[in-house]
Amino acid sequence: MSTHKPKLIEEFVQQIQEALEQIPHIQEALELRLIPRNPAASARPPKIRQEEITPLDAQQARLLLEAAKHDRFECLYILSLTCGLRMGESLGLKWSDIDLDAGTLRVHRQVQRIRDGGGLVFSEPKNASRRTIDLPQRALEALRSYRKRQLEEQLRAGGKWHDNGLVFASRKGTPLDAQNIVNRYFKPLLRRTGLPDIRWHDLRHTCATLLLSRGVHPKMVQHLMGHASIQLTLDRYSHWIPSMGRATAEGMDEALT
User: Given its phi and psi angles, is residue 103 left (phi above 0), alpha (psi -120 to 50 degrees) or beta?
Assistant: First the structure.
């Protein structure tokens, strides 16, 4: 169980509990008053430990982007920090998903590695994760610059280029492996800059916490993150939403004066 994400385990446990409460024989016994109550209804599901997140603060995020200038994956860092994309979502992007003129990006594909020595596969994310987001100016500029660089790589590769239309691809146009990027580029970058040894996914958390700490509405952050519900956003990032209690008190004072 420890190899699975807490959120997936929580959903699985909830489904089992709901199924137990709806077992036909138990429902029938309740209706016939053969038993006083549903024994499954009082079962206590195991507590799910929330995933620990270690986002960068604004100064650390700026330091990371400064150190990543002219890095091969500078654009990838920028998309993760400014748009909150998951690594698989970024590596699944195709240029047809991006409208550089309108400044939008559509997320509806991801790259995953099959376990136990399997290869890379494209898959569709869950419904909530499919979204269209507006690109910040910094992300737009990074994508335009990266597009130019990739076209130059394509010319150098010639007939060896695999035209998959991918935004982030190898020097031959093939899909990239996330773990390879983390081990060969991201972790060394953190060490060089003296930043905490965070996970790649914490760049996504950094995006959310920076926005919430500056008063961006949680509903907007939910959409950007591709969360299934605003409750998930609030539960995960409530510590970074500033002065909620003070704002509530001041709002009541304003309403009654």
Answer: left
